[in-house]
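Could someone model manganese (II) ion with this protein?
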Amino acid sequence: MSSASLLRAAPDVIAAAARRVMARCEELARVSADAASIERVYLSPEHARVNRLAAEWMRELGMRTWQDAAGNQVGRIGDPAAPALMLGSHLDTVLDAGRYDGIAGVLMALEVVRLLREPGVDGWTVRLPFAIEVVAFSDEEGTRFGKALLGSSAVAGTWNDAWWDLTDADGVSLRRAFLEFGLDPARIGEAARRPDELVGYLEAHIEQGPELDRAGEPLAVVSSIASARRFQLVVEGEARHAGGTPYDMRRDALLGASEAALAVERICSAEHHIVGTVGRFEAFPGAVNVIPGEVQFSLDLRGEFDGERDRVWDALAHELDEIMGRRALRWRSREVHSAPAVFCAPLLREVVAGGIRATLPPRSDAPPVIFSRAGHDGMALGVVTDVGMLFLRNPDGVSHHPDESVSAGDVAHGIRALAEAVLLRGTERI
Ligand code: GLV
Ligand code: MN
Ligand code: MN
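Reply:
Sure, complex below.
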């Protein structure tokens, strides 16, 4: 495949684009439910505010904009009758989040549109055979309702009506949150896109892990996105007096759940490319002098392949039976999220690799190819269109944390590589 640059934008134009992305990441970070941290969950007032900002930035580029039936913000440019190459990522965050997870990908996509519109650039003069849509997905993280990828599942047409009854920490159902946000649950199907409307989905994202940083590489092609399952687990014992209850009478739910959390680490870490995380853990009634009678906790399980992930869940369930049986406790689980592994389409892997080669010459060897352990909107979109991803170096691999970072220089490389990839896809010079 060619490593020639198709993009004619000067380096200072791309550097300015990267500076704009960094400044806008700061601007969006200020749109938070919490003054001391970044928190922007699905269907919140902050979600509405960032959608308005993104829509303004899209219109500035001459894009037609709309908020779809699932609260995703979309901008479109190009032939109204042509299928679209979708670019984007998400604007929702975890709790106490960083500034770049998802956000940088949306803003970089907007800069790609800007670069392709520069006079004299191949993209617009050769007339791309597709329109471009930039999508700011509304719920990738699943922070509010536990179920991740709600925004992109609606676009993929895989919305499940059972989700309407999911509730947030305040007991607000997804259905009610839709209505309060001004969306009509009955119209959710209108967000769905048909395969013939799309030529593919390309996303740039920080790596959220240390591989590129360790290798001294700014960019990588993503080969696949890990499969994931999430569960809410409950362990039931008996709440009794902390002083008066002898050990032979105790049925301490916290001790059983703690053993379960350790079993997650032991069983997952013995496997290749499987990670399990207990991220939330709450004891009830939560008093210093009462033996915990109930514990609720979460489990997030990821694997490169669905089969291995499911086999590990079966082994964990077996282990929980043993632990709880031994401690005279009961346990139950509810699965709140499941997404199969998604393999990036060979053509889009090639154009992303070509984009990196054109950006970082002289690079005769193949650019790094890595598997994403983190989830992305492409996991949902894979059923409706081809998916490709570009990863950016994430210093020290810190993500889902306020210290998350990416350098302006790497963002500049990323913008350029993504623009080159779009041009390669459009001109089929691969
Ligand atoms: C999202 O970032 C996830 O991987 O959970
Ligand atoms: Mn993300
Ligand atoms: Mn994330």
